[in-house]
């Protein structure tokens, strides 16, 4: 067996986590051919195949399973070293990786980045649109702005408020709601059964559309394709949409601005995080669904 290139283990870990080289490359900031080459290099060094390449993705082999826990631990330790080195940095330059939903980026994050760059032009940004919280310990992101039930471990942050949701649709859909059964728009990941908001309020509704994009859901609702459960901070600013009267209200999640505990004193992360908190705090009425509707 040849001497290992330990950096190749990062590529191995990302392919295990994502299941395909394209997504792994996106997270690592390289193209998929680089990921494939680094995995092949690692397999050559070990003398074992770590993945079966299939049409549906890369499937880890028994040999890969034997080393995956150790490889993940080594990757986590390497990331911890990197965070410790940066933790006391007062240099307001470098890269900040921010993750949030695509809707949150447009309405809340981009205005803060624009103003931040005016005072700190040497800071670069990488924006990662995701509905779920990424692995901050694994440096998938430095700052997360997410609506979640509870923050993950080893992070610090600020709770802003409770994000309000409501069911929205175009006025013409609501006028026919009593006599017809309009379509609804739901998440791809919400399971095979009807979501609770449909079961409780509209048992006769049919689900015609599913998506994994909050922007797509919003735009489909604006086009009159169906009813959708949307954050009030998004839908209340759309003149085409009205709130559907509900017997059973849906509870939302808490809005948090999060970063890894080791980066809490890193200047660029700390300053941007504070700016994000300040901006969102001014928008609490909108986030909680209390801001007057636009007509």
UniProtKB/TrEMBL annotation:
GO MF annotations in UniProt: DNA-binding transcription factor activity; sequence-specific DNA binding
A Pfam family it matches: LysR_substrate
A GO biological process held by the record: DNA-templated transcription
Domain of life per record: Bacteria
Ranges of residues in domain HTH lysR-type: 4-61
Keyword annotations of the record: DNA-binding, Transcription, Transcription regulation
Gene3D superfamilies from the UniProt entry: 3.40.190.290, Winged helix-like DNA-binding domain superfamily/Winged helix DNA-binding domain (1.10.10.10)
Recorded family membership: Belongs to the LysR transcriptional regulatory family.
PANTHER family attached to this UniProt entry: HTH-TYPE TRANSCRIPTIONAL REGULATOR (PTHR30537), TRANSCRIPTIONAL REGULATORY PROTEIN (PTHR30537:SF3)
Protein name: Transcriptional regulator
Taxonomy of the source species: Bacteria, Pseudomonadati, Pseudomonadota, Gammaproteobacteria, Methylococcales
């Amino acid at each position: 067996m040849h001497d290992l290139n330990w950096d190749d283990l990062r590529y191995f870990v990302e392919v295990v986590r994502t299941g395909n080289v394209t997504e792994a490359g996106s997270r690592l900031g390289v193209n998929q051919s680089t990921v494939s080459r680094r995995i092949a290099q690692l397999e050559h060094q070990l003398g074992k195949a770590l993945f079966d390449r299939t049409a549906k993705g890369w499937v880890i082999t028994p040999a890969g399973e034997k080393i995956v826990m150790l490889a993940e631990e080594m990757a986590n330790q390497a990331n911890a070293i990197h965070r410790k080195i940066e933790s006391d940095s007062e240099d307001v330059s470098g890269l900040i990786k921010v993750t949030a939903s695509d809707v949150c980026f447009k309405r809340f994050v981009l205005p803060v980045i624009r103003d931040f760059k005016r005072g700190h032009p040497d800071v670069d940004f990488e924006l990662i649109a995701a509905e779920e919280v990424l692995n901050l310990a694994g440096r998938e992101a430095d700052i997360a702005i997410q609506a979640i039930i509870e923050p993950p471990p080893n992070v610090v942050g600020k709770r802003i408020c409770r994000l309000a949701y409501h069911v929205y649709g175009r006025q013409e859909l609501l006028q026919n709601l009593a006599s017809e059964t309009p379509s609804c728009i739901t998440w791809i990941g919400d399971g095979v059964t009807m979501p609770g908001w449909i079961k409780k309020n509209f048992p006769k509704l049919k689900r015609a559309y599913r998506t994994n994009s909050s922007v797509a859901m919003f735009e489909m609702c604006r086009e009159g394709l169906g009813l959708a459960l949307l954050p009030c901070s998004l839908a209340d600013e759309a003149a085409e949409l009205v709130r559907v009267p509900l017997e059973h209200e849906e509870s939302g999640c808490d809005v948090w601005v999060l970063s890894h505990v080791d980066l809490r004193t890193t200047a660029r992360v700390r300053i941007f995080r504070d700016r994000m908190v300040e901006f969102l705090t001014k928008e609490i009425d909108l986030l909680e669904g209390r801001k007057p509707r636009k007509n």
